[in-house]
Design brief:
The complex is a heterodimer.
Chain A lengths: L4 E12 L2 E14 L4 E6 L5 H8 L7 E9 L2 E2 L5 H7 L4 E4 L3 H4 L6 H12 L5 H14 L5 H5 L8 H13 L5 E5 L7 H17 L3 E6 L2 H7 L2 E6 L2 E7 H6 L4 H8 L59 E2 L7
Parallel strand pairs in A: 3-8, 3-9, 6-7, 7-8
Antiparallel strand pairs in A: 1-2, 1-4, 4-5, 9-10, 10-11
Helix pairs in contact in A: 4-5, 4-7, 5-7, 7-8
Chain B lengths: L2 H20 L1 H4 L20 E3 L5 E12 L7 E10 L1 E11 L2 E9 L18 H37 L1 H16 L2 H11 L6 H15 L2 H15 L2 H8 L4 H9 L4 H24 L11 H6 L4 H6 L5 H25 L3
Antiparallel strand pairs in B: 1-2, 2-3, 4-5
Classes of the chains: A alpha/beta, B alpha+beta.
């Protein structure tokens, strides 16, 4: 079956005066099928958010994008800006971590939802837009729709704000939702609510999902398939179960060791492990595997060249010399 | 005095002034160009309540003026003839909102004259000229400010929003204009144009020149606001939902420039009033017989007028509350709107 989204050898560099370009993404390729939820797992600064922005061509102006992005077989990287505008929100939507700052502070949230509808349905009357916005507000779990419609963002809680962002994202019926750490700034119970909401909406709207997170536990909940990103490259790819239960790449393994298994059984005497060192500077090109300096299983070959992608098991990919490379 | 009270006073004062110049035709007892050759440099007419016999009147009256017997340049009140001040009298023609009227707020029966602020060298009523002259000076400030703010808004928002090469080019142009000594530039432009042009043409030339020179500062300030507004997370989020450039400018970015826009307006209007006054004072603005505060002050270039006829300073005195009012307003807007968001 033809994938909904296909990203092929995507490179993104951030440019700055008098400094070498920061290579934030270095050849990322993956596909997302219809109705599939793909989790993107990685540390801060590994390029996860850049990937989310790059798909919709929302990168800052001082950046360079190479590679190809196909959405429903249309190449997005050379699409005119006008066409991109029609696509954003109507075909592919994007929500962010901090919904509070993603909403305009002095406009009523209902208006902000209706504005999205207006951008994609030029023929809708003000009344239709309002009804559309109220319907989607009900769908994202609000009861007092009228009151919420007339609220300003600061009158809502973090969870409610994120629901508003979800309503904005879904009002024009996209087939793909990109969520960039949508629950990371919320407390645990609210996080669970939002995750449950996204799961339900995914089912009801037959939505494909690209879910960016640094939290493996959240991805265990949400993702069918997981891509592990390190220093702008996909180092491991497989089904959520495979990646989370038996990670292949030493980085994925180390990352999962950092997660408390079960809070109730972890007494204060059990120390969580941390990965020593820090991710490489994106402005420098490491000679070998970028994870090598921090890797517990490092070999001689690791520092000399980049391992290539191998398939140690069917449907799994990894970039590590342990598996050939 | 509390801040709020001061702002209220400033607003009331400015509204009264603008109201007065709009109703100049009605409020002024005489046509601004009408000359009374018998009364050059007459001092402000005194209003009396007590007559020569010492009895009190409930309504003010004035005496006629006669030249002083020992000094030709001075006047005496002619106590033998009293003229009561009359309200809503019929007098010179003027047009108000397109209607031709001749009803005036107050007046004196012929052959008496009432000069509330004295007369100039041609015997023209200073009070009437002050009101009519305010039209030229205050409207020049408003129109020139509107012109340079709209230019500044257009350049600033394009520059800030689109950035890159466009921004660089426009900002170099802004710096060029900021570096220009604008008063001398105005002299040069005005001097380049024909000397004898009709007052209407002169007025519009003046306004256009003042307005097109001053757009650079508001342009740069608005660019700054747009630049920071463009980087907000919710602008990116709106783009993610398919917002166009036009939508973002209209809904998210330009409303944020409102504070700077209004503050700049409150700063630029008095500055441009002063520019008109300066140019007309130097004879480069609106010419005789049309009054403007600048050309009314122009006669003070002659020392004996400055020394002898204090009432000729009236236009300079009304500039004080105008500037004070705008200054208070600008301060208030700056604090309320620019640091609010």
């Amino acid at each position: 079956m033809e994938p909904l989204l296909e990203v092929r050898d995507l490179h993104v560099d951030y440019l700055s005066d008098g400094m070498p370009p920061a290579q934030v993404l270095r050849g990322v390729s993956f596909t997302v099928s219809k109705n599939e939820a793909v989790g993107i797992l990685g540390e801060s600064g590994c390029g996860k958010s850049t990937l989310a922005l790059a798909i919709l061509r929302l990168l800052p102006s001082r950046s360079r994008l190479k590679g190809a992005i196909f959405y429903k077989s249309r190449e997005l990287t050379n699409l005119p800006e006008r066409e991109m505008e029609k696509l954003r929100g109507a075909e592919v939507s994007l929500i962010f971590q901090d919904a509070g700052s993603s909403l305009h502070p002095t406009l009523r949230v209902g208006t902000q939802i209706a504005d999205v509808a207006a951008a994609h349905h030029k023929d809708w009357s003000a009344r239709q837009r309002r009804e559309g916005a109220e319907a989607i507000l009900k769908e994202v779990g609000f009861d007092q729709v009228e009151r919420i419609y007339a609220s300003y963002p600061h009158q809502l809680s973090g969870g409610q704000q994120q629901r508003i962002a979800v309503a904005q994202a879904l009002i024009s019926g996209p087939s793909l939702l990109i969520a960039d750490e949508p629950t990371s700034s919320l407390d645990t119970t609210v996080q669970a609510e939002i995750l449950a909401l996204l799961k339900r909406l995914r089912r009801e709207h037959s939505l494909a999902l690209v879910f960016v997170s640094h939290n493996p536990a959240v991805l265990a909940e949400m993702a069918d398939r997981i891509l592990v990103v390190y220093a702008g490259q996909i180092v491991e790819e497989g089904s959520a179960q495979q990646v989370l239960n038996s990670p292949l790449h030493p980085f994925a393994l180390a990352l999962l060791r950092c997660v408390p298994k079960d809070v109730r059984h972890n007494g204060p005497d059990r120390l969580l492990s941390a990965i020593p060192g820090s991710p490489p500077d994106p402005a420098e090109t490491p000679a070998g595997c970028p994870f090598a300096p921090r890797c517990a299983e490092r070999m001689d070959v690791c520092g000399s060249r980049m391992p290539s992608e191998t398939r140690p098991e069917p449907d799994r990919k990894v970039r590590c010399f342990k598996y050939g490379g | 005095m509390s801040r709020k009270r001061m702002v209220r006073i400033a607003v009331v004062l400015l509204s009264l002034l603008y109201g007065a110049i709009l109703g100049a035709g009605f409020l002024a007892p005489y046509d601004p160009a009408e000359q009374d050759r018998a009364h050059p440099f007459a001092p402000p007419t005194r209003l009396h309540f007590v007559d020569a016999e010492g009895s009190l009147h409930g309504w003010p009256f004035i005496y006629g003026l006669i030249p002083s017997p020992d000094n030709f340049a001075e006047y005496q009140e002619d106590r033998s003839r009293a003229f009561p001040v009359r309200l809503f009298v019929s007098g010179d023609h003027y047009s108000l909102l397109g209607f031709s009227c001749r009803r005036h707020w107050f007046g004196i029966d012929e052959p008496g004259h009432i000069f509330l602020l004295g007369t100039d060298g041609y015997g023209r009523d200073q009070f009437s000229r002050l009101l009519w002259g305010g039209r030229i000076s205050l409207l020049a400030g408003l129109i020139a400010a509107a012109l340079s703010l709209s230019l500044g808004m257009a350049v600033g928002s394009v520059s800030g929003y689109f950035g890159g090469f466009v921004d660089d080019t426009l900002m170099r142009l802004v710096e060029l204009f900021l570096a220009m000594p604008w008063l001398y530039l105005l002299f040069a432009v005005r001097a380049f144009l024909p000397l004898h042009i009709s007052p209407t043409v002169a007025f519009f030339l003046l306004v256009v020149v003042i307005g097109t020179v001053g757009w650079a500062r508001p342009a740069r300030l608005i660019r700054g606001v747009v630049l920071s507004a463009r980087e907000r997370k919710y602008v990116l989020a709106a783009r993610g939902f398919g917002a166009s450039d036009f939508y973002l400018l209209r809904r998210h970015i330009l409303p944020q420039t409102m504070g700077v826009f209004l503050t700049q307006a409150a700063l630029l209007i008095p500055q441009y009033i002063l520019a008109e006054v300066t140019l007309s004072f130097l004879g480069l603005g609106v010419g005789e017989p049309v009054p403007s505060w600048g050309n009314m002050l122009g006669s003070l270039q002659q020392y004996h007028i400055l020394a002898s006829y204090w009432w000729m300073l009236a236009p300079a005195l009304v500039l004080v509350p105008v500037f004070w009012g705008y200054q208070v307003l600008a301060d208030f807007l700056h604090e309320r709107l620019e640091f609010g968001h």
